[in-house]
Amino acid sequence: DSSDDIEDVSLFDADDDVSRRSKKSKIRHPVASFFHLFFRVSAIVVYLLCELLTSSFIACMVTIILLLSCDFWAVKNVTGRLMVGLRWWNQVDDDGRSHWVFEARKVSAQGSKTSSEAESRIFWLGLITCPMIWVIFAFSALFSFKVKWLAVVVMGVVLQGANLYGYIRCKVGSRKNLTSMATNYLGKQFLRQ
After folding, report:
1. Hey, which of 51, 117, 134, 187 would disulfide with 25, CB 3.0 to 4.6 Å?
2. What's the pTM value of the predicted model, to 2 decimals?
């Protein structure tokens, strides 16, 4: 009869600590998070400091384009999948037709997400901020008549903009219209205020 009165109680509130830790946003993939920002920020820093460090335009251009290419590959193939569970690619059929595929990781049966909030914030902050910086660089190169740097800056806009577009399509869904989604979001924000 005494066994009926016994109930499972966690020692020293261990279950509470686990639930508190799971609510916290911790970074599960620190190497992926580092490289997600490393190549992006390095390309921007090299662009800003290039004329101070060396007088060789070719060396600067090659370094920046290599960093941008490494960033494009790492974000498209590794960090997007690990940090937020999204990926996109181009598939060519036997007929030679090109199809873009946008995927999002499905939520598990328990309803738990495999990516943390901190990783998601790092991913989207880097993914959105850096192309905006390259657009600013493009306007400054255009208006200051630095035509030779315009090609490098356009590469930055194109490579990082392609990743941004691909991941927005993955997040929103490939079938939905992005303009209607943006209009709905702005309408909701306006109504809240």
Report:
1. 117
2. 0.73
